[in-house]
Every structure is written in C-alpha cells, then in structure tokens.
Specification:
Largest sheet: 6 strands, antiparallel
Number of helices: 2
Helix content: 25-40%
Strand content: 25-35%
Number of domains: 1
Strand order of the largest sheet: 9-8-7-2-1-11
Order of helices and strands: HEEEEEEEEEEEEHE
Radius of gyration: 31 Å
Length: 216
Amino acid sequence: MKLHTFRRRAGLTLVETMIAAAVGSAITGAMVLGSMSFQTLSNGANEYYRATSDQMRVLDSIAQDTRRATSGSVSNGGQTLTLSLPDYIDYSQTPPTPRSPSISSTGAITYGSAGNQPTVTYSVTGNVPNQVITRTQVSSSGTATSTLTWNTSDYQFLCFDPANPSGTAPFSFGGANQPSSITVQITFQPKFSRINLSASRAGTRAAVTMYLRNHQ
C-alpha cells in the first residue's frame, strides 16, 4: 500500500503579498480621503451657520436701531448707514434724568438739542476676504460709547431706498419729504466652497425693509 504525504502550503507568494499591500493601501487611502472630506464638510457647515447667525444678529440690531431712530442717512455707495437716535436721557445730571420732548412748528419731536443727537453707524471695514461689519454708537457729546464687530466671514453690506433699489448716491431718510423706510441687504462669501466664485455669494443674500417709527 502506497502512502501519500501532503505538504501544507505556508505563507504567501511575492505576487500575492504585493496585491494584498496594494489593496490595503487603496482602502487606507480611501478612508483617509473620506475622513478629510467629512472634516472639510463639517467645518464648512459650521462656518456657514455661524455666518448666517451673525447675519441675522446684524439685521436684528439694525432693525431695532432703525425703529427707534428719528432720521438717518446712507453714504459710501450704500455701505455706510448712520442713524440719529432720540436723546432720551440727560446723563449730565446726577442721577441721569429723562428729558422732556420739544415739539417744533412742523410737529417734529426732539429730545435734547435738535442738532446734537446720539448716532449709530453701521459700516463695512477691512479688506477682502476679511471684511467685517462694525456698529459704532456715539453719544450726543461726540464720544464713542460702544462698538460691536461681526467678523465671522467676508461680509458685504448694502443699504438702499426701496423705491430706488439700484441707486448708489447718498441720501437721507426720515425727514420731511424723504423716504420713511430703508432696505438693508447683507451677503457673505461662504468658506470651503468647491468653486470660489462670486456667484456663491448670491445664495447667502438676506435683506429686510424697515420703517422709521418716528418718521416726521
């Protein structure tokens, strides 16, 4: 009776090892690339929602100031908004006391000095791609009392008369025979966009039209 012996094959050939290494490298590379893509997507979404949150906060702040303003003006090609606020409180007194309003012959109501009212200015500062929106409040004495800056993304800020949306000339509103409302538009350039074109800014446009409560 003839006995057959079987030898078990151990290990892999060089070709099999190279194929396994290539497959493993491809899988590892795909995993690294996918992880980087997900991280970029996560960062882009986070920056986008942070920018839109600041965008809404700016518009809310402008709306609050506009509703209590007595008049305002737009300059710098629509990129600077200045609002005159009622000088309700006399801080020169101790303690500060409310002012009594004065009424002119035209029916305009003024608190404090007519030509010396507190102002709030919204403007765009900085250079692309780091343009920011700044709010500066100045008291009736001419002292800057507070400054806020929104700098999450590259903002563009535009104010215009709703009846003349294409106009870029400076204008005043809130006075006699002047517009009683203003439209403010804010856009920003998304970060981590696949194609960094100005067209991507159009999708971030937000605008609000506000009326002056104290319009003469």
